[in-house]
Design goal:
Elements lengths: L3 H31 L5 H15 L1 H18 L4 H32 L7 H67 L1
Length: 184
């Protein structure tokens, strides 16, 4: 059976790989938008990238917030708590930036001309840098600490379950013996 912690971090790492790929592709597309040389195939790629950030990245953030960050927040290590709080705050900023950037990209995908290119470039630059810094902090600090914390929690939980099993086993044996005597 797969280790659930391993599977979780594989999912998160896979999404980070997708984010890096999509951000770098988007960087090229924003450059083409700026140079007014965007092709119809580029517009389709904008749609795929927008869909990725609208769906997979939001799910990724939810998984981190429910399964990774709590292990840091409940840590005895003040640095881990600060990292988790920073990452929560980053998610808010990333979402806010995407709420501004996404509609401009969708409009360009649809052939609309209302987005102001300088605002799009500025918004993308902020979004790109924030994502890169955020993922670097997660990969270098948060994920390793969360893995360690989750491993420790699972060991403690297994120990508690084993202790409960040992405590209940004599009662179960006694109850079986009592049943045999009353049935005889």
């Amino acid at each position: 059976m797969d280790n659930p912690d391993h599977t979780l971090f594989e999912f998160l790492d896979h999404t980070h790989t997708g984010i890096y790929t999509h951000l770098n592709t988007l960087k090229e597309l924003v450059q083409r938008i700026q140079e007014d040389r965007l092709q119809s195939s580029d517009k389709k790629e904008l749609g795929r990238i927008c869909h990725f950030f609208d769906t997979e990245v939001r799910e990724h953030h939810l998984q981190e917030e429910t399964m990774v960050f709590p292990s840091l927040i409940h840590s005895d290590d003040l640095r881990s708590v600060r990292i988790a709080n920073q990452l929560f705050q980053d998610h808010g900023w990333l979402e806010e930036n995407w709420i501004e950037l996404g509609p401009m990209l969708r409009a360009i995908e649809d052939g609309q001309s209302w987005p102001i290119v300088s605002e799009l470039v500025h918004g993308f630059d902020i979004f790109y840098l924030l994502n890169m810094e955020h993922m670097q902090l997660e990969e270098s600090m948060a994920y390793p600490k969360a893995r360690e914390s989750l491993k420790k929690w699972r060991l403690e939980k297994s120990g508690r379950e084993l202790h409960q099993l040992k405590k209940s086993k004599p009662k179960a044996v006694h109850s079986i013996k009592s049943t045999r005597h009353t049935n005889s």
